[in-house]
Design brief:
The protein contains 15 helices and 18 strands. With 429 residues, it is an alpha/beta fold. The radius of gyration is 22 Å and the shape is globular.
């Protein structure tokens, strides 16, 4: 069979193989002929050695698949040859990853796919859908009429999250992300639940959130930054730039939000925050006029060190990172901060601020559903509900490109930048 093999935990070591042995399912397993495999930030994290205790090269990458059952084990019931299915593969699946023509998976991790859903859309919705359900219903417990702040540079994840959030009555969403033209696609799917978009390169995150919430803060912050920006590459604190700052870039003060503010030559006046302008959902008047001017002047003027971290193209925008001090100060009393960071260290004053808000923290790791048998019924319910929402047209994944398996080597090298603009789906049908 054809497959992509990762020789070591480096993205440039992936190679296309034509003659791998077809795996044989065990008694409790099914063999699936893969039709589509969607790439994910999880694939990037594997190459960044975040899960060295679970993965061991060489391995076949790819962790969310859709396909057709090709063979079943002797103990399998409820599935038969020819059934269209979807599955999320565990990290320790070894040589049975999704970037192959055939994959073997335990039958209890497989869910049937409705016929009306394409294999590409089904595969592209799995991991992000699982993350969002985990965030909203098992960690943040989002309720109607609450304020939710989504901090993420992953456009596909933002899009799916907003579509699901729009189904919760009265929820108001504030997006914190480097704004680009692709946000038009997200806003048009929000059904009015997005009340503000904050660009942390040129606006004060805390001030914008407090203005929108009447000074109360948000009920939940879904902090997914580390999924797309390696924590070792984080730019330490955004710069808030306004008109007339070209001569003052060398004079940078420490702002009260924990970020850096560049200002004029007049001492404390150089720390002024840009004025804020409110706007309706789906309109870029949600950004202040100073923010628009800063964006128009070019990204390199706002984040001069970001190109070294990400690259000399439009993905440079994503390297701005919202520090934990700003996140804590944006929380309401009894607020919840959910993060994907695996290297989080709180200082004493930060712990004190959380305690004085009676706030709580949670950590998102979607693979926990595959590691805990006690949660298995809930896990299958989530996947089935994702399929039902796709079938009903309530959600739709944002797919950036569809490629063939023999194109994987070139695509994998640039996965970190391309995946931010939409899901990359490998078609094997």
């Amino acid at each position: 069979m054809r497959a992509a093999v990762l020789e070591s935990l480096e993205a440039d070591t992936v190679r296309y193989v034509k003659d791998m042995k077809i795996p044989t399912p065990g008694a409790a397993e099914v063999r699936v002929r893969v039709k589509a495999c969607a790439l994910d930030p999880l694939d990037i994290q594997v190459c960044e050695r975040r899960f060295v205790s679970l993965v061991e090269p060489p391995l076949i990458p790819g962790y969310q698949i859709s396909g057709v059952v090709d063979q079943t084990g002797s103990c399998v019931s409820g599935l038969s040859n020819g059934d269209a299915v979807v599955a999320i593969l565990p990290l320790d699946c070894r040589n049975s990853g999704g970037l192959a023509e055939f994959v073997v998976v335990n039958h209890i991790n497989v869910v049937k796919k409705p016929e009306s859903i394409s294999f590409e859309n089904a595969a592209a919705s799995l991991l992000d859908g699982l993350r969002i359900y985990h965030l909203l219903y098992y960690l943040a417990y989002v309720k109607p009429e609450q304020f939710v702040c989504l901090v993420s540079g992953n456009i596909a994840l933002n899009s799916l999250a907003i579509q699901i959030l729009s189904g919760i009555k009265g929820v108001k969403v504030i997006i914190v992300a480097a704004v680009g033209a692709e946000f038009d696609k997200i806003i048009e799917r929000s059904k009015g639940c997005v009340v503000r978009v904050v660009d942390p390169r040129c606006e004060s995150v805390v001030s914008c959130i407090m203005e929108e919430t009447g000074g109360l803060g948000v009920d939940s912050i879904l902090d997914l930054q580390s999924m797309t920006v390696p924590e070792r590459d984080i730019v330490p604190g955004p710069i808030f730039s306004g008109p007339g700052n070209a001569q003052a870039k060398s004079k940078v003060g420490r702002g009260q939000d924990g970020g850096r503010f560049s200002g004029s030559d007049n001492g404390e006046e150089g720390l002024k925050k840009p004025p804020l302008a409110r706007g309706k959902s789906g309109d870029y008047s949600m950004l202040s006029s100073d923010a628009k001017n800063s964006l128009a002047s070019g990204v390199s003027d706002i984040l001069p060190d970001s190109k070294a971290a990400v690259g000399d193209n439009e993905e440079t925008r994503v390297s701005c990172f919202v520090p934990k001090a700003m996140i804590i100060r944006s929380l309401a009393v009894h607020g919840k901060w959910i993060t994907t960071s695996q290297n989080l260290v709180l200082q004493r004053h930060e712990s004190l601020q959380l305690a004085m808000r009676s706030a709580s923290m949670g950590f998102l790791f979607e693979q926990v559903w595959l590691l805990s048998p006690r949660q298995h019924g809930k896990y299958l319910h989530i996947l089935e509900d994702i399929m039902h929402k796709l079938e009903a047209g309530k959600i739709r994944p944002l797919i950036g490109k569809v490629i063939k398996l023999d194109q994987i080597r070139g695509e994998y090298r640039h996965l970190k930048s391309s995946i931010r603009l939409g899901k990359v789906v490998v078609s094997l049908g």
